[in-house]
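Running co-folding for iron/sulfur cluster.
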Amino acid sequence: MNVHDSEYMATLLEEAGYREASTLKKADVILLNTCAVRQKAEEKVYSLLGRLKFLKKKRPDIIIGVGGCVAQKEGERILKRMPHVDLVFGTHQFYHVAEFIEKVRQNRARICCVDFSYQLEPPRRIIPLPRESKVRAYVTIMQGCNNFCTYCIVPYVRGREVSRRSEDIIEEIKRLLDMGIKEVILLGQNVNSYGQDRSDEISFAELLRRINKLPGLKRLRFITSHPKDISKELIRAFGELETLCEYIHLPVQSGSDRILKMMNRKYTRSDYLRKIESLRKVRPDIAISTDLIVGFPGETEADFKETLSILKEVEYDTIFAFKYSDRPPAKAVTFKDKVREEVKKERLERVLALQAPITERKNKALEGKVVEVLLDTYSKRGNQLSGRTRCHRVVNVAAENGLLGQLVKVKIKEALAHSLRGEVVS
Ligand code: 5AD
Ligand code: SF4
């Protein structure tokens, strides 16, 4: 979501006459779009801002701005702590970024604007242009979250759920397809609740169905889903829609019912496993990844073992595992029995050690197989092209002229730890 919001800001700024600087040192305006989901992300923001102090000392005329979730969470505190920062703007304010910069420039005043506006469309319609790929694009379908998982800061920094109009979404995708985009990734903090905040809207599964029909679209994906909201209609869509890729990211967070309850996740381990089973029934080759947290307050060794056992039971293709960190004002900050840092560290290591051979085995199973890859990046180093399979695995192939941006069949030669290596066969 943040990567895409940055694309949006870059597009707006280009329209206002700005150009991307080739290096940080040459920039007249430096904007940080920030993530607050875990403590480590927030620490990185302050550490980068600390380093920018020296740049501002050398060139006092530059403008430094902080946007996104840390800006939303910290507000004025950033201006107090960091005298070299000129501008702080929240998650609902990024459409106004060019105006903010102009105001700072004209008045040499420092600005902080973190109001929630719940405005999902910019004052003037623009298509945020993808930066990293000419064939893959993100499209925001909804913002915010109403779930209030007790560890999570997102509802506080992104506000309540607001869905965009399906007509606007479809119009945006049509324009992207006209520009040559082949793969669309729908974005939202909780895409499955799409439309539930408005009486005039279709369901998420219906939205997928309509997008699937658009001429020129080859691949459709979405992130992120909440397990409690995976409907039967959505599961059916996985079996029916040709463009919908056989991959889902379905954060489980914990394998223990006791911890899931404390997290306010609103599903049990067996509810979750049933959904996985149904997905695999309609799409046996579906790749599944997950997020999980170790060391949530009160997590005992027995709870943690339940998380290990769910990993063994599901056999995820990949996992993203995190040590719990307090994110005020999230509720779990007040929970007792915080887990010690060494224990969290040890649990994280055990989770990763358990998963590594599962991921490796799943990747190895692809050796010798022919898969479809959308080649969308060229890397000079090693003179190779890379792209992703429909199941979201990275595949590298020797660069061949003219194949960038193409959907090709690739025979997998070797499975490495984080990617696959193959040869183009057609
Ligand atoms: N501590 C650790 N991990 C967290 N996540 C969200 N909040 C926290 C927290 N307080 C993780 C969850 C979520 C992912 C984006 O970040 O696993 O799915
Ligand atoms: Fe956070 Fe839970 Fe909402 Fe996901 S569903 S953004 S974890 S509160």
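Result summary
Residues 37-38, 151-152, 251, 253, 291, 293, 322, 324-325, 327 surround 5'-deoxyadenosine (ligand 1) (CB under 6 Å).
The radius of gyration is 22 Å.
Job closed.
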